[in-house]
Amino acid sequence: MRNWIILLIIALMALILGLQYAEKKRTAATAVPGPAQQGGPAGVALPSDTGPDGTFVNTGSYDPDKSACEGGSVGEILGSYNTTWGPKSGDQPYSLKTAAVEKLQKGLADYFYCRAFAARDSASCENLNNLPSDRRRDCRLDLAEMFSMAYSAGVYDDNSFCVARLKESEADFPFLAGKDHAAFCAAAARGCEGLSAEDKKQCLTLFPRSKEDCAGARASCLEYYGLYRAIKSGDPADCPSSHSDSCRPFVARAEAECSPLALNVSKYYCAELEKARDASPAAMLIRQEEARQKDAEREAAKQEAAARLAAEHEAARQAERERVEREKLLEQINKEIRKSMGKK
User: Fold this and answer.
1) CB crowding 71-91: b at 16 or more within 10 Å, else e
2) Does residue 171 sit in helix, strand or coil?
3) Is 133:106 a contact under the CB 8 Å cutoff?
């Protein structure tokens, strides 16, 4: 009776998982992708904190081949939001622990950050909207920094990012306060020519053309020079190590720069998901049933071995009895023979 109850529980758990999987597939099939992004893939916005259900749009555009397990690509991970991970996954048969969710979110943030720079599209930074980190703001500011350096290097025509960057930098660089940012950016594109001697010196600390321009300036000046050199050469290898996560995908304009991050996210997700499954009530019931079956098999084998040993002992005793009987019979025959010969 107890075995039937356990099997019934396992069957019910399997039915629940099947219904949830079907509902997830239905939701993914009816989801509407976001607007297309200029120079990049279709936009996939992460949900806002006040969204109706907080679900991600499942998409196959995010390195679908970088998966360490079935259902482990970035798009499939997004599709499993609030089922196997996320704030609403607690009532599921199994879900990732809080620490694992936080690490997964950081990995996804790194990936989307990289994708925004590979696409050279600030709208892609919105993909970081629902991840609890400062990467969304960092993404916008860092992308503006890259575009402003590209503008000063003459490989990008729009000065809006440069103007926005200067406005954002007034607190760190007080000399920018009150300046005509558009005119300052135009001068930066000319190597800071046409400015007063003092303004030119300050301008070159933000838009250096050589290491000498950074003499006596902040350490960030050399980083800006590294960005300028990489953008000007078009070689990601020239990117400064301090900005490799933003500079390399931006200069390469290749989403392949982000693929290793996608694979790292997938490997971590798959490993943690396996742990969660192993710790689930259904898995525990299965392991208990398997352990019971193994115990029963061991007991049956033990009894079989005992019966076989007993049979062997009984066979040995029977053989001994037969041997004794044969010896008695042989002795009796010999006795009769001797008696018969004595009479003669």
Assistant:
1) bbbbbbbbbbbbbbbbeebee
2) coil
3) yes
Q: Tens of pLDDT along 243-276?
A: 998 999 999 998 888 999 999 999 999 999 888 8
List the domain boundaries for the chain.
26-120+253-281, 141-252
Q: Output the six-digit token pair for 66.
A: 């970088």
The position carrying tokens 């200069």 is 251
How many other β-carbons are positioned within 10 Å of the β-carbon of residue 274? 12
Sequential DSSP letters for 323-337: HHHHHHHHHHHHHHH
The widest CA-to-CA distance across the chain, in whole angstroms, is 156
Rounded Cα gap, residues 341 and 329, in angstroms? 18
- What six digits make up the tokens of 271? 């490993």
Lookup result for tokens 């660089």 = 173
Q: What angle do CA 4, 8, 10 make, to 5 degrees?
A: 120
- CA–CA dist 46, 128 (Å, integer): 7
Q: Using alpha carbons only, what angle is made at residue 289 by residues 288 and 291, rounded to the nearest 5 degrees?
A: 65
pTM value > 0.85? no
pLDDT digits (tens, 9 = 90+) for 166-225: 998 888 889 899 889 999 999 999 999 999 999 999 999 999 999 999 998 888 999 999
Query: Are the beta carbons of 79 and 214 closer than 8 angstroms?
Result: no
